[in-house]
Specification:
about 60 residues; alpha+beta; 3 helices
């Protein structure tokens, strides 16, 4: 099984899904539609791997 992180900083998560960090940051602040769950740890926001995978699937459906 390949090593997989539990969570990613927004910049790394954005690179993984080929979107801008700003786009993901706005998705974490959405109150309606496809919200991306993220947890603030210190000064960084972290996105869990499972949440990113589920979010990108939903984002593709809404396009």
């Amino acid at each position: 099984m390949p090593d997989q992180k539990l969570a990613y900083p927004l910049r790394e998560a954005a690179a993984m899904v080929s979107l801008s960090e700003d786009y993901l940051r706005r998705a974490t602040k959405r109150t309606e539609g496809n919200h991306l769950p993220a947890q603030k740890v210190g000064k960084k926001y972290l996105v869990r791997h499972e949440d990113l995978a589920a979010w990108i699937s939903r984002e593709g459906e809404s396009a």
